[in-house]
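Retro notes, item 3 of 5
We never archived the inputs for the MGD complex last cycle. Fixing that now. Sequence and ligand:
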Amino acid sequence: MIKVSSPPKYAAGIKGIKYALKNAFESMSPLKSLKLLRKLNQKDGIDCPGCAWPDPDKRSKLGEFCENGVKAIAEEATDKHIDAAFFSSYSLKELKQKSDYWLGKQGRLVCPVVFQRGDTHYKPISWHEAFDLIGSKLKSLDNPDEAVFYTSGRTSNEAAFLYQLFVRKFGTNNLPDCSNMCHESSGVGLNNTLGIGKGSVTLEDFGHAEVILIFGQNPGTNHPRMLSALEEAKQKGAKIIVINPLKEVALSRFKNPQKLKGWLSEGTEIADLFLQIKINEDVALIKAWMKILLKAEVQQSSVLDMDFIDKNTTGFSELKTDLEQYDLEELINRTGLPHEKIQLAADWILSKKRIIACWAMGLTQHVNGVDNVQEIVNLLLLKGSIGKKGAGTCPVRGHSNVQGDRTMGIMERPTKKWTDKLRDTFHFDPPTSAGYNVVETIEAMSQNKVSVFMALGGNFLAAAPDTHNTARALGNCQLTVNISTKLNRTHLATGATTLILPCLGRTDKLIQKSGEQFLTVENSMGIVHSTKGVLRPPSPLLKSEPEIIASIASATLGKNDDIDWLALTDDYNKIRDLISKAISGFEAYNDRLKDKKSFSLPNGAREGIFNTPAKKALFSINQLSEKSEYKYTMMTIRSHDQFNTTIYGLDDRYRGIFGGRMVVLMNPADIKKENILPGSRVGLFNSYDGAHREVNGFQVVSYSILEGCLATYFPEANPLIPLSLHARKSHTPSYKSVGVNIKIQFLN
Ligand SMILES: Nc1nc2c(c(=O)[nH]1)N[C@H]1C(S)=C(S)[C@@H](COP(=O)(O)OP(=O)(O)OC[C@H]3O[C@@H](n4cnc5c(=O)[nH]c(N)nc54)[C@H](O)[C@@H]3O)O[C@H]1N2
Ligand SMILES: Nc1nc2c(c(=O)[nH]1)N[C@H]1C(S)=C(S)[C@@H](COP(=O)(O)OP(=O)(O)OC[C@H]3O[C@@H](n4cnc5c(=O)[nH]c(N)nc54)[C@H](O)[C@@H]3O)O[C@H]1N2
Ligand SMILES: [Mo]
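Structure as it came back at the time:
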């Protein structure tokens, strides 16, 4: 039985450090742990593979890392290994029966292996044979679009750049990535309205903000170092408003583990106002705020920044007209929030000029995910809160280099500017038609249109929606190739032939022909910097990601290709020189890294320059969420003990849940209405597109969440998310709002 207690009163503090060290010491020796921690997020050190939150200029003497960052590196740097003997002792069938948690705990992959349909076990294969197999399969395809090349956001700029260059030289834009399931709605929404798909604020802006809105994000677990920035903002007088269906503890009270004061004091209360909203009613809330602001402007003026609106935006009068059709009370009712709280927040927004809006998956993973993002932009534009100090957009990115991968060209719909530049730099005709994103990849695989699926990192099957259908779709492929550090569910959904190619990770030293190498990444605020591993790799057999990609490119495109792929990986400066030529903002890449080890990329919105077709920021008209026919709306969230599909442990300390993950968080009144008790086991089911989907065995947890709303963990609940339920304009799966009904399995 899973144990449940009240959530703790604060996040982090000494307890956080204790849990961090416990995790590290369980995976590796204290000496190795300390060697890693000393270098984590330091200027000449390892970029934490945990999240994409930027590092402050002044790093804390107590270490610039968080509990979950330590878990991330312990997971990678573990002393345990999965070798050929492991694969001969467990059949594929046996491995399929193991949990994700068990798979992860077996250690680092250290030898290339192959599975052929009809076999019972994975078997070792040499690198040479593996590359030949991939090269000849790719060359044999009738059409390059029969191959798909997925990327997860941990890969470096260098690997990502080589990968997309190879894939486009091969002839396709089928480059789906984890971003398609993550911040795609932000990219689309921000590009449409502000002309850049990235956020506009810097870390420094947090110290100048008067109001900070935090929508749909749980930084205590997923971006813990963000709390230091929020603490500082708070100390300088900013008002922090949290909009979330759950009262995430770190946003209530935070004890900063990087400051002695944080160890000893009561900690800092982060949120001034917590708005416990119904799932997917953020558009209604923002519309309500905008109506209040517009009304106040008529009465007292200077509420809106009319100068900014006149000079820099278009669409203001259309927005005003559109808002007139909504009734304020109806909007407020939809949110499930008390009128007074909405008014209080509006009063703060009304009277202040420098506003930052932060958000993450709570906004992007809905059918109206792009609408959510664009509605936030509307609010900021009304206040002129963009392109000035202490104000702007802050989509908080997930994977540590997901933003960099996009900058490097990992995108299935490249712009003309991108393909033109590639053509001029590398003298070939890159494909220009749209490739598949994640949802389209699964659709195409289901229709037998994909022969080869390759993944540069990630865990496609467990991360994607509609797990059972996605597994079947992967099974339709003739060849699947996984370039990975750890064993995961995707490796077990085999095609006719499946390869697992083990690679070096962030923490490992990279030695190539010219000597020791470093790699580069871009954080959530557009700062590019180096990352350099310090550990002896778990096996001399492992290869770096750039080397694996270059070898595949060489085996596919042939020795006569214009690019000498293998020579590029002798010295990574050569890859960065190519990037300098091909991507604006990266001029003199190597030189700029030499001194400061980092530099900022240009960002129009930050300077108040809007690269939209109209050269102005756009007010947009956005839709409210659609009414659901289901009794409940379910969101799938992360526990404190996981990194996406990697399960570090079975507890969710900050929510008071211990020893298991099959839980459903439910409002006490709903539990009563269902005639069940906390601790009962229930099944969740729905029926979209005529197909019944069901997952059983959830233990009911009575939790502070509004009636009609449920929360479960990802990836356990992914079989309930139909592939067709995704954001209208970005294809981001609707992981945060799916309709379900409940059936009782047994009462407590
Ligand atoms: N330790 C750790 N760190 C991580 C990750 C991890 O798994 N573990 N994952 C990384 C990745 S790839 C990402 S993208 C980020 C994810 O970071 P988050 O987006 O913080 O992660 P989620 O758990 O998906 O949390 C979403 C939050 O949105 C809220 N929410 C859900 N629906 C709604 C809604 O309709 N409206 C509002 N206002 N809120 C809503 C939920 O209650 C929850 O607090 O973290 C990154 N960092
Ligand atoms: N229901 C639901 N589903 C979701 C989400 C949700 O909130 N709810 N969130 C979505 C989001 S935001 C994201 S970003 C996706 C995540 O999707 P992915 O990025 O595909 O998944 P991860 O779990 O991060 O991938 C973990 C695997 O990456 C490999 N790996 C780790 N480090 C490295 C490395 O350095 N190199 C290589 N080559 N491999 C490495 C390991 O083998 C590990 O098993 O999931 C999405 N799925
Ligand atoms: Mo993500």
